[in-house]
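Training component of the fellowship. As part of building independent skills, the fellow (R.M.) carried out the full modelling exercise for a liganded target. The chosen ligand was iron/sulfur cluster. The inputs are recorded below so that the supervisory panel can assess the work.
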Amino acid sequence: MPWKGEKDPYKIWLSEIILQQTRVEQGLHYYKSFINIFPDVHKLARAPGAKVFKLWEGLGYYTRCRNLIASAKYISRELKGKFPDKYEAIKALKGVGPYTASAIASFAYNLPHAVVDGNVFRVLARVFGIDKATDSVKGKKYFTTLAQELLDKKQPDLYNQAIMDFGATVCRPATPLCSGCGFKKHCFAFLNNNVNELPVKGKKIQIKKRWFYYLVLENKNTIAIRQRTGKDIWQGLYEFPLIEAEKETDIRIILKMASRNGWLSKNDKLISVSPIHKQKLSHQLIACQFVQVMLKKKNAADFFRVKRNKLSKYAFPKLVNQYLRR
Ligand code: SF4
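Fellow's submitted model of the complex:
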């Protein structure tokens, strides 16, 4: 991976933010594009937000992108481009938590801070037989203290990379390679035959289901869109006029609601209703339908109109892009 052995804090920071909640295979392409277009923090800080969002499009968890932009501006303007080189100052950057701060501090500056990510939780839980929930406050504190005690203070960068790689490639979640593992003579989980029961998670994530009905309002080869501004998922991305419902709703009711909003009038023509598209986020399941309507006049005053062939200039949520591609 291009970020392995990297010492430039900007590149390490970029890779760590991209890899939060994202698989390496998916993040790699984005990392390369970002480094190519924004080779240093000043270039990223000066770029229009819409351009950065467009490059981020498809990665999801868009708060990361907003934080990336805010931190780049802060480092470029307030710190004159010098990336913070102390753990606390790194952790104070927007979107940087203890894990990311430890990764940057150890990889870029060789500072003695242990990383504790999902791989590290798993290795420590199994080798030491720890049954504390990794998502509880107590559990996190326990694992962090142990990881810090175990850290090789002379080579924290090498140690952190090694334990994470070991978790990713040998002590894997579902099919760990125990028979060839160098720890098997000491590993609590292997010796006690409970490898698959560790690590332990306490909380069950509550998934909220939401129904989105997007009105694709066309008029003379233009389509109405708007930018999402509220404190909600996909903030900063673009979308069609949206009606959200608590449950699956008949399209005739959705059309009536759209008329009440002033988006439709009598002579507008319903063209198509898409099948249900679904997207699973960490705490939400979005079910979504697209209702395509040909307008007689340009309604939907709260929205701006974009020519069909210019839609690709805007960053949309994955669900909308799937629909547009079809
Ligand atoms: S023996 Fe198995 S469970 Fe234990 S550290 Fe090695 S791979 Fe992980």
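The panel noted the following from the submitted structure. The longest strand covers residues 208-219. The radius of gyration is 24 Å.
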